[in-house]
Amino acid sequence: MIEVEHLYKSFAGVPVLEDISVTFERGKTNLIIGRSGSGKTVLMKCIVGLHEADQGAVIFDNRNFVGMNFTGRKELRKEIGMMFQGGALFDSLTVEENVIFPLSMFTQMPWDEKRERANVCLKRVNLDNVNKLFPGELSGGMKKRVAIARAIVQNPRYLFCDEPNSGLDPKTALVIDDLISEITHDYSITTVVNTHDMNSVMEIGQKVIFIHQGFKCWEGTREEILDSDNEHLNDFVFASNFAKKIKSLTSKDS
Amino acid sequence: MKTISAFGKYIIFVTRVFSRPEKTKIYLQQTIREIDSLGINSIGIVIVISIFIGAVITLQTRYNLESSWIPLYLIGLTARDTILLEFSSTMVGLILAGKVGSNIASEIGHMRITEQIDALEMMGINSASYLILPKILATMVFNPVLTIISMVVGIFGGWMACIVTGALSSSDYIYGIQYWFIPFYITYALVKTVVYAFIITSVTAFHGYYVQGGALEVGRCSTRGVVYSSILILLADVILTQLMLA
User: Which of A50, A74, A106 is facing B118, going by the closest CB pair?
Assistant: First the structure.
């Protein structure tokens, strides 16, 4: 479980996050949604310590990450897997080497064992026969899957995914969503996904928080989104005319 | 104020680079890879430039010393000392700042904008140390080798110029390059090379590491890194010359 308490963050005096408090539950896919520039990526980066929060606490199972020293953070980060928006695979390493990398840095595993573990993870994300390819030779969807494989190779307790579906076609996006959801449940980890893709929200959003202009504006489940009367949330979710029509039809029916 | 702040940021950056490595074996492997990428790959350009500059220094000296009072072997001596004292260390340093420095700044900058550095940090790895320490070690170990290659090839280039143009007899040149040889000049050049290697790698890596934005900013940071490291090389040249030769 990850608890965020009264988190504030500003850049050059401009507030980006204000008083965010939320609990991300274990074994669930927790989604942060919001418009571009609303502060969701900053929130995720504050949670994992890539940005320093101005105020507040981020508690990973009773361990406050904000006040932690360098060594403590380093240890905690070994329990965190993160998938970045573009994959962030190392260009100079092959797919297999990318997945093995965290194991090489932090374990004394023999080479064969590391390869075996990497192959298990690659298989888990439905990738075969790509071990020797470089990231530049992969499609967008494959890169994301390799990034997930690398994120789970050390059996993390927490998984963060920043815009896992950006730049993907709906079908591939669905594959990635299912994968994240399956991994969350199979390994019983705390997963936090940052997205503005409403398909993802409806597919895997067991807990959803909506960020609007740096504030937590709404919190609930995917089912509750449709019935919400939150103006900002409705503006975001039913942005297109098509979605608005569906909303009005469902309202009339009910 | 901005300069002081940047200097402070650079000092913090260098401290992070030199903090204890996560896994020494992997850092050593990386250092060997960097020696190949940054050092061995630079041998070609160093040889080509040194051979031509050695030839030009010899010919320029010959054509500018037209006095019958000056013995011809002094042309060999002048060419040798110019190559040993300045060319093979400082000029080659400036050339490497362009070649190796821009490579480092753009590589690190690209890793920053594509979040590869964030990915390393997220794994609990000190990204500054992991990415940059092997580069610094590799250049500090291998650049002196490049300097020695440049010295040998530069002096050979001068001899070739004498043979091809007939501007000076081979025996005068060879006598000149052996005349009044001061071995400390080699030490002086190698010390300068090691300092320049540190400047080139750390300054350009610093610019790449803190880049923000996209491809355009990576290009700009690469140029800025090369310019700053070149200026610092010249400043270090003055300081080291005063300290070591005065």
Answer: A50
